[in-house]
Every structure is written in structure tokens, then in C-alpha cells.
Design brief:
Length: 194
């Protein structure tokens, strides 16, 4: 009887839900302070912030609003949570993960919003565009940049970011090694760039 109870608990447990939970903490920041953040239209926080977003299939629209700036919307897409594959053969467990949201994981843990001032002058616009390219490159290539920094390898990603930003590769690697998340890395790179 005990073995049957343990087996039923194992079969009915949902790996994605048990190991990852039904929410995912998302770090949100912007190039200007105090941006009001909305997720699918609901106000959730003011930057910088960390917010637990319910896991689900599809995407969540993260919007930033601030007086004097253009609104920015970034989709936060989800994919299958690798942990959920652990119970694919047990239909009840898989169903629990799908219903609870544990079967999904957002593709990134951080969102960085580039808020653009309304009515910018040409010089301001050029600086903003360069800063945006540096931020975007750092966010999109964070994992590769981290790997190169950890191995002290001045690879193609570090070299490209160095060329784009004008920051020496060694300083980029220091910033990356001391940044636990994507958004923190962007902030450190931008501090060095200015």
C-alpha cells in the first residue's frame, strides 16, 4: 500500500511545477529611472524592479511609460520548460504542468527598456541609437559574452562589443564577471561607456 501511494505521488507530481514553480521572477530596468511598467496592460511596478510573472504559453507584453518619453513595448516570449520534459510520459503530470503554467519558461530573466525622449535633437538621437545598440548587443549575446569572460577568452562577441562601445575587452570581461544577470551587465557596460 505504501509503495502504491509513493508511486501515485510520483506519477501525479508535475516536474515543471515542483522544480520551477508557477511564476518566474523577471528583472526589469530602463535607461532612465522611475519608468512605470505594465504587463499585458496591468501596472506591476516602477523601475528598477523584480516582478514574479505567471508562467504561461505565448508571450507577455511588457510596456514602459514615463512622461516626456515614447512608450516602449517588449514581448516576453515563453518556451517549453526543460524540467517539464521529466514527466512527459505521465499524462496526469504533464496536464498539471500545462494547467499550472509550470510547463513554460520565459526566454529571458530580464527586460531592459530603452526609453526614447520625445522630440530629441539630432546629436541626442545619435547618442541614443548608439547606446541602444550597445544595450541590445549585450542583452542578446549575454550568455556568449559570459562564456568568453569566464574563460578569459577575447572571442568574437567580446571583440564586437569592444568595437561597438569603445570599451577595452578586459573592462568588458570584468563587468560581465561581476554581473549575475543580463540587466546588471547592461548597466555596468553603460556606466563604463559613459
Amino acid at each position: 500500500m505504501k509503495k502504491l501511494s509513493l508511486l501515485s505521488i510520483f506519477i501525479l507530481s508535475a516536474c515543471g511545477t515542483v522544480f520551477s514553480g508557477t511564476t518566474q521572477d523577471i528583472s526589469i530596468d530602463a535607461n532612465v529611472p522611475d519608468v512605470t511598467i505594465f504587463a499585458d496592460g496591468a501596472k506591476i511596478c516602477t523601475t528598477p524592479c523584480m516582478y514574479p510573472i505567471e508562467r504561461a504559453s505565448g508571450s507577455v507584453a511588457i510596456m514602459g511609460k514615463k512622461a516626456g518619453y515614447e512608450d516602449v513595448v517588449i514581448p516576453l516570449k515563453s518556451k517549453i520548460n526543460p524540467v517539464a520534459w521529466g514527466n512527459i510520459t505521465f499524462v496526469y503530470s504533464w496536464t498539471t504542468d500545462v494547467v499550472s503554467g509550470g510547463a513554460w519558461k520565459y526566454t529571458r530573466d530580464g527586460v531592459y527598456l530603452n526609453m526614447e525622449k520625445k522630440n530629441m535633437q539630432k546629436a541626442e538621437m545619435e547618442k541614443f541609437r548608439l547606446d541602444s545598440k550597445i544595450r541590445h548587443f549585450t542583452l542578446m549575446n549575454y550568455n556568449q559574452l559570459q562564456l568568453e569572460a569566464a574563460s578569459r577568452n577575447n572571442g568574437q562577441y567580446t571583440a564586437s562589443l569592444s568595437k561597438l562601445s569603445g570599451i577595452p575587452s578586459a573592462k568588458i570581461q570584468q563587468a560581465l564577471l561581476s554581473s549575475p544577470r543580463e540587466v546588471a551587465a547592461v548597466e555596468k557596460i553603460m556606466e563604463i561607456a559613459h
